[in-house]
Design a protein that fits this description.
two-stranded parallel sheet; about 290 residues; 10 helices; single chain; eight-stranded mixed β-sheet; about 40% helix; alpha/beta; globular
C-alpha cells in the first residue's frame, strides 16, 4: 500500500514527515513557501493517521516512506521531520544514505533512544486516560504538552483535531510498526537538528547529541520554541528551513560532500538569523 500523500512542484525534492500527534496538515504553513522556493514537495500521512488507513499486517514506517519515494520516482530528497517524523527521517537516512540529500529535524526522536522518567510518566498518564475511555482527557494532555508558549489558540485547536482523530483510529489497531535496528553513523547528509527550549528534555538532548554522532550535523536550540516550532512561529521556521535547504543545494552544486567545520552547538533566536545571513551562526561557509 502507498500511504496517502500530497505532491506538487518541480525541482529538488523535499519530503515532510509529521509528528505522531499530528498528520500531514501540520506542514500547511511551509507547503506553499517551499513550492515557491523551487522544490518538489511531498507530505504524507503514516498508517492510521490522517487519510492513511490502519495496517492489517506488520509494517515499517520507514519502508513506507521509501516505497512512497520509489512510487513517485524520487531518487534523492531532503527530509524534514518533526518529532516521530524526525525519528523516521533518521531511520530512512540510515537505511538508504545515498537517497537523502539533507535532514532538517524539529524536536526529533531517535532510534534506540531510552526515554527519560519525564517522558515515561507522560506516556503513563496518556495510557491511563485512554484505558479509562477518556479520549478527550488524553487529547487535552497532549495539547497542553506539545505546542509551546508561542502557539496561538488556532494552532492548539488544529493539534487537538489531529490528535483526536489519531486516537480514535489507532485505538482499534491490531498491529503496530516494526522498529528497525539502524546504524545512524551511516548517515552522511548535512543535518540541522533543531530543538525548542520549552520542549521535554528528551528531545532537547537528542538534538544536542547528534553533532557528536553524525559527521555533518549541527544543533540549533530556539529559546522561544516548544515541540512543534513550525506551527508555533511558522513564518520564522519556514525561513529557517528554506535557507538551510538552499545552502545544502549550493554545497551540492559545488561538489561538496560534507558541511564545513563550524561550532557544532548554538542557542539562538530567529532574530539572530534574520539580522544577518541565515544560518551563518551554524555554518560559517555553507
Amino acid at each position: 500500500m502507498i500511504i496517502s500523500h500530497d505532491v506538487s512542484g518541480t525541482g529538488p525534492a523535499v519530503v515532510l514527515l509529521h509528528s505522531a500527534v499530528c498528520d500531514r496538515r501540520m506542514w500547511e504553513p511551509q507547503w506553499q513557501a517551499l513550492l515557491d522556493a523551487g522544490h518538489r514537495v511531498v507530505r504524507c500521512d503514516f498508517r492510521g493517521v490522517g487519510d492513511t488507513p490502519l495496517a492489517d499486517a506488520s509494517y515499517s514506517v520507514a519502508a513506507d516512506v521509501l516505497d512512497l519515494l520509489d512510487h513517485l520516482g524520487i531518487e534523492t530528497a531532503a527530509l524534514v521531520g518533526a518529532s516521530y517524523g524526525g525519528r523516521i527521517a533518521l531511520t530512512v537516512a540510515a537505511l538508504r544514505p545515498t537517497a537523502v540529500t539533507a535532514l532538517a529535524l524539529l524536536g526529533a526522536g531517535k532510534p534506540g533512544h531510552e526515554p527519560s522518567d519525564t517522558l515515561l510518566a507522560l506516556d503513563a498518564r496518556e495510557e491511563a486516560l485512554l484505558d479509562a475511555g477518556d479520549i478527550e482527557g488524553a487529547v487535552e494532555l497532549n495539547v497542553r504538552t506539545w505546542p509551546g508558549p508561542e502557539a496561538d489558540e488556532a494552532t492548539r485547536e488544529l493539534v487537538r483535531r489531529m490528535q483526536r482523530h489519531n486516537f480514535e483510529v489507532q485505538l482499534t489497531a491490531q498491529v503496530g510498526p516494526q522498529e528497525e535496528d539502524v546504524d545512524l553513523t551511516h548517515i552522511t547528509a548535512p543535518t540541522l537538528a533543531i530543538a525548542g527550549a520549552h520542549d521535554l528534555p528528551d528531545f532537547r538532548e537528542i538534538a544536542a547529541s547528534l553533532p557528536a554522532l553524525l559527521p555533518n550535523a549541527r544543533h540549533l536550540e530556539l529559546p522561544w520554541a516548544g515541540h512543534l516550532p513550525n506551527l508555533e512561529r511558522p513564518a520564522e521556521v519556514t525561513v529557517l528551513l528554506a535557507d538551510f535547504l538552499l545552502r545544502v543545494l549550493r554545497l551540492v552544486s559545488r561538489g561538496g560532500a560534507q558541511a564545513p567545520a563550524a561550532t557544532p552547538t548554538r542557542i539562538l533566536s530567529l532574530t539572530n538569523f534574520l539580522v544577518g545571513p541565515t544560518l551563518d551562526a551554524c555554518w560559517t561557509s555553507l
